[in-house]
Amino acid sequence: xxxxxxxxxxxxxxxxxxxxxxSYPQSLVDKIMAYHDGSCDELIDIGCxxxxxxxxxxxxxxxxxxxxxxxxxxxxxxxxxxxxxxxNVNGDELVKGGIQPESVDMAVGGESIHWCDxxxxxxxVNQVLKxxxxxxxxxxxxxxxxxxxxxxxxxxxxxxxxxxxxGKYLTAFQRNFxxxxxxxxxxxxxxxxxxxxxxxxxxNEFTDKGLYTNTKTPAFLxxxxxxxxxxxxxxxxxxxxxxxxxxxxxxPDIAEKFVSELKDACGVKTMDxxxxxxxxxxxxxxxx
Length: 288
Ligand SMILES: C[S@@+](CC[C@H](N)C(=O)[O-])C[C@H]1O[C@@H](n2cnc3c(N)ncnc32)[C@H](O)[C@@H]1O
Fold this sequence. Notes:
Layout lengths: L4 H4 L5 H7 L5 H10 L6 E5 L16 E5 L3 H10 L4 E3 L16 E7 L7 H11 E17 L5 H11 L10 H8 L6 H7 L3 E8 L1 E3 L2 E3 L10 E4 L1 H9 L2 H9 L6 H13 L8 E13 L1
Parallel strand pairs: 1-2, 1-4, 2-3, 4-5
Antiparallel strand pairs: 5-10, 6-10, 7-8, 9-10
Helix pairs in contact: 6-11, 9-11
Bound molecules: S-adenosylmethionine.
The site of S-adenosylmethionine has 23 residues, from helix 1.
Keywords: Methyltransferase, Transferase
Family: Belongs to the methyltransferase superfamily.
GO biological process, one term: methylation
């Protein structure tokens, strides 16, 4: 399992995470629910964090439980959504964590399973799902500043993915996972763990010919505006940023350096100017 500051840094700022991270569009929830072919009794959310993904399914299932190995994240989830169920369970060890085999109608993971060992989590999800149960996982990769020059994208790649900067806290597997929207072997891997009817959507892959989307009516389109002040807080909510700050005490703040470089390179006048963004996103849907 890759090391993450969500778990290892005692003062990881889960409150900030909750206040600055985006939620997911209703169209994604609708897509997942339309795909689901079975009962709606039990849902588990793997790597639920502060509950941003979990709450979206509360009205669809009789019982929804958010699972995460980080007490810091779970404490915020409990405070924000006290009426819901939360448990400290690692995605790699669902059965050991108390989830019964063949007891779950749907397992979801929003922006989370890259922190698990994919072989373990896929095996575990398959074991706890009822026959025909749904497994849905999805990610936002990065915001694309659609009115700024490509330098905005290149700077994101430099600060988030390169070994020189915060990317050194990603494993090679994680970097490849994000850059290739799950990787070329994902369908085969899911099939090898017994999943079928696999659906995969990519939105806003960055290519030399512009942003590419593999469907005409994407269900997972995340768009809006963001100021550089908001973006700075978003970068500061990364576990990568917390790890960097822990390991570089006394150095200039890496998130501020990143955003200031982006501001200058792209000629953004102020930190409060609303900038149009579309997120690069992807999801996988499959069933047992
Ligand atoms: C980026 S957050 C996503 C939280 C939430 N699902 C959301 O959409 O905002 C990733 C979460 O994965 C959790 N995580 C890390 N390792 C994990 C593991 N092995 N199993 C399950 N969750 C894990 C972290 O603690 C963190 O809460």
